[in-house]
Amino acid sequence: MNLEQYLARIKFEGSIKADLDCLNAIHYQHLLHIPYENIDVQLRRPLDFDIDRIFDKVVIQNRGGWCYEMNGLLCWALKEGDFDVMRMV
């Protein structure tokens, strides 16, 4: 897993800076380029929160994700970019 692959997946251009403008840009690009997908849910595949599996599915396989996958991936990416992130579960 690496941040550069994620940023390429969401077509984010520019440098990462832990500020509000960058956060807004990453969030927008994430929403624009990663669709909601619940195919795995509909197929009754086991669901988990494993970030390595989610990264592979969404970034490497170029698929979408369901809410917890998309939020988990965005959380991971923001932390990699030195943002202070707290998940509310």
List the helices and strands and how they pair.
Elements: H1 3-9, H2 20-33, H3 39-42, H4 51-60, H5 67-80
Overall description:
The protein is mainly alpha-helical and 89 residues long. The chain has five helices and no strands. It has helices at residues 3-9, 20-33, 39-42, 51-60, 67-80. Helix 4 crosses helix 5 (67-80).
Query: Rounded to an integer, what's the Rg over CA atoms?
Result: 13 Å
* SSE pattern: HHHHH
**Number of strand segments:** 0
State the helicity in percent bands: 55-70%
List keywords for this structure.
89 residues; globular; mainly alpha; single chain; 5 helices
Describe the structure concisely for a colleague.
The chain has helices at 3-9, 20-33, 39-42, 51-60, 67-80. It has 89 residues and is mainly α.
